[in-house]
Amino acid sequence: MTTADIEARGWRFKGHAEDPFWRWVASWARAMRRPSDLGFSDEGFIRPPVVYRQHVVDATRPPEDRLFDVVAAGLQEEREEARRTLPDRCEKAADLLRDADSAVAWCQLNPEGDLLTDLIDGAVQVTGSQSPDEQEEALLAFSRGEIRVLVTKPAIGAWGMNWQHCHRTTYFPSHSYEQFYQSVRRFDRFGQEREVTVDVVTTEGSRKALANLQRKAKAADRMHDALVAHMTDAQGVASSETYDQDVRVPVWMS
Fold first, then answer.
1. Taking Cα atoms as reference points, which of 196, 186, 197 lies closest to residue 53?
2. Quick one: which of 64, 154, 163, 226 is 20 to 30 A from 186 by CA?
3. What are phi and psi of 208, to 5 degrees?
4. Which CATH entry fits the domain spanning 50-215: 1.20.58.100, 1.10.1660.10, 3.40.50.300, 1.10.10.10?
5. pLDDT digit string (tens) for 99-112?
6. What whole-number distance in Å separates Cα of residue 125 and Cα of residue 127?
7. pTM of the model
8. Cβ distance 210 to 173 under 8 Å?
9. Sheet holding 168-171, edge to edge
10. Rounded-to-integer distance, Cα 10 and Cα 181, Å
11. What is the tens place of the pLDDT at every residue in 36-55?
12. Of 41, 88, 121, which Cα lies nearest the Cα of 203?
């Protein structure tokens, strides 16, 4: 549930003194991205920064019945935009990863993955049509540094992998913030020693999807900061073990 959802229901993160309910909730809630969120030192846990670079690619083929690109309206137009600009976006992504010693090229469509694999030297693709053993072998080979560039979808490789050895990635934005967050966190992890560079490749017609993704990212950060603030405040709530009434044992227990 986001902050917007909470506000839509008429709830508010009020001060604990005036709203005992939120004070109680915050007293057992736990949210953290770094040790300092729980009151500990961040020493030894400060990760290198993540640099986001945005690339808006000009399509070589204009939309049908139009003289120039316009922002896609609705999912149908966005799908058409993605297919029409597929070669332009893949060529840009391949060019960005040309000098990378290790990288992941995230894709959303099967044709994107196929073209990226053809364009990028040393690229190996992991697809949904492969067997679990084939997928596991390729993912582990990349983890060991035996594959220079891995090409796959977020739905396949964006969860559970520790790729601190890699610090370069390209991404074609969709409306899923969860996929984007998890994709970046494969590299932005404790143990990463280099600055992580995320190249977001999009087109003029797909600006709405990118803007929606950025809006969700900012909302998630605000919600986390609010959770940590209320959680930290609740840690100062004094507990009491003073009881001013005698214990009354039920008759049937006498």
1. 197
2. 226
3. -65, -40
4. 3.40.50.300
5. 999 999 999 999 99
6. 6
7. 0.76
8. yes
9. 50-57, 196-203, 168-171, 103-106, 149-152, 123-125
10. 29
11. 888 889 888 889 999 999 99
12. 88
